[in-house]
Structures are given as C-alpha cells and as structure tokens.
Amino acid sequence: EDQVTQSPEALRLQEGESSSLNCSYTVSGLRGLFWYRQDPGKGPEFLFTLYSAGEEKEKERLKATLTKKESFLHITAPKPEDSATYLCAVDAGGTSYGKLTFGQGTILTVHP
Amino acid sequence: GAVVSQHPSRVICKSGTSVKIECRSLDFQATTMFWYRQFPKQSLMLMATSNEGSKATYEQGVEKDKFLINHASLTLSTLTVTSAHPEDSSFYICRSVRGAEAFFGQGTRLTVV
What we know:
The structure holds two protein chains of two kinds. In chain A, strand 4 (32-38) and strand 5 form a beta hairpin. The relative contact order of chain A is 0.33. In chain A, strands 2, 4, 5, 9, 10 and 11 form a six-stranded mixed beta sheet that branches. Chain A contains no helices and eleven strands. Chain A is mostly beta strands. Chain B is built from no helices and eleven strands. Chain B has strands spanning 4-7, 10-13, 19-25, 32-38, 44-51, 57-58, 67-73, 76-81, 90-98, 101-104, 108-112. In chain B, the strands form two sheets. In chain B, strands 2, 4, 5, 6, 9, 10 and 11 form a seven-stranded mixed beta sheet that branches. A four-stranded antiparallel beta sheet of chain B has the order 1-3-8-7, with no helix packed on it. Chain B is globular, with a radius of gyration of 13 Å. The A-B interface holds A 32, 34, 36, 41-46, 49, 87, 89, 96-105, 107 and B 6, 32, 34, 41-46, 49, 91, 93, 95, 97, 100-107, 109.
C-alpha cells in the first residue's frame, strides 16, 4: 500500500528564518511527487512536480528536492504570506493514472 | 486563473436533503475527475474517480448510493450527496488532470444541520 508521511505536523517560523518540510513516501513505483499549498477554506494550489531522484525545482522562496525515499520543501527567508498548509502527494502510476495519495500536510505559520 | 471551477463554495442544508456539487473544467476537456473529501486539519481522502461517459470508481468504504457521481460531459462532473446527515459535513474538492498537470477546484464546504 502506498504511504506518504509528512513532518513536522506544524511548524512555526519567524520571518526570515529558513527551514525545511519533509515528505517520506513508500510506493511500489513512483510516477511523480507533487507539492501543493493550501490556504484555509480553499482548494490546493499546485507548486511542483518531481519525477526522479536528484531532481530539484525552485519557485521564489521555495525549493523542492527528491530522493528515492523522501522529498524536502525548503523555504528560504519565509514571509508571513507563506503561511499555509503544504501538502505532499505521490502518483504511483499503474492502472490508476493520475490518482494521488496525499500526506497529512504540514501547517506552516510565519510570524512577522 | 482557475482551470477547474467548483460550485458552490459553501452550502448549508437540512438533514435528509440532497446537495449537488459541480466541477467544470475551463478551456480543456477533463476526461477524468477525482473527488476528495477533507476533514478539518486532515489530508485529502480520495472518494471516487469519474470518467466521462462511464461509471465512477469508488474507493473502499465510500457508499456509491450516497455519493452519486455523474460525468456526462467532458467539461462537467457532479457529486450529489444524497440524504445528507451531519456526519457528511466536510470539505469536498474535485481535481482534474490536463496532460502532466493537475488542477483542483476551489472546494465546497458542506454543512448539514
């Protein structure tokens, strides 16, 4: 069974204090790993897709990396507007094309 | 702008009534739509996968007679919560795929009183 575990469950940072969120996964075959941002009461917003170990992608203050067992979302010099829940999901492929398994999410709060 | 439009964003209904949630794909044909449910501070749980013109595939433990999914066209998929009860109160979200990209609707907050 595919599993995705995110840590920590919640993270509080001061503005400018860089940190990382972790996403550990166990799948039979990884088609892709996704990172999303979700604001309260809204649907998730796409951030990144990573496909193979060693791949990295960046967007503004965010950088996502991937190994064979986990992914990290690095946040550099965060701002209060980065506060949100960050979700990690995997697409294990097979016959269920596009079907994602989600982690529990990390609630990030950035204080000014 | 949004590529998947979900309505309504919020709905309050009485126990025993039915509620329909719509997801429309904008500017592309969504052959597949995934429906999720999310409880407060929890992750998204896949309920079912709908494919245009065929019956939806439900995840284990999801009552197909209670959560009716219709995907009659390439741009519209609907989820109907029938005979709603307070325990059905939740955040429902749809997701579609366009090529290698996946897009979520804005979500629907359902409250059953």
